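U., I forgot to send this yesterday:
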Amino acid sequence: SEISDKDLNFYKNSILNESLSIPYFDDKESKEHGKYTDNIQILNQEKFKSLKNIIKLKVKNYLKEIYKLEYSIDIINSWGNVTSKSKKIVKHHHMNSFISGCFYFDYDSKFNLYNPYIDQWMVDFESQNKFVISPSPKLLVLFPSWISHDSDISNNERVSLAFDVILRDKNNNV
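Result:
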């Protein structure tokens, strides 16, 4: 199921109309960080139902192709990120989930996934320590939740939707 440009704009504007907050970090990082929606179950809203179904299908395909797993899944958290010009998403990882993802509505600052297996003190060039993705509208990025990630400083406002996924076995156990 493809997302139309009309639906893309609808979802983006829906996120922009949500109540937004700045996450708490130390003073320096808080000043640099973008905002996120106060609602961390945004995909549970009826207006996001179609997008949620597309994401769930893509996650199931990812699990089958990459991990050779066929589980039922739950999106346990989902929120919008709004990164204004000169702001960024600071380096972090997600806990208590198996897969995390980000769906993009805009082009702009790079998204970085950090290699946990390279000792940062032994790397001569930073580029060897991370995998860099250039976001574009309708791009869905999926990755293991424990991998640290961030974004570069934004040149323009950038809107994205992030989420965390858990797996359930045939007995509905996590």
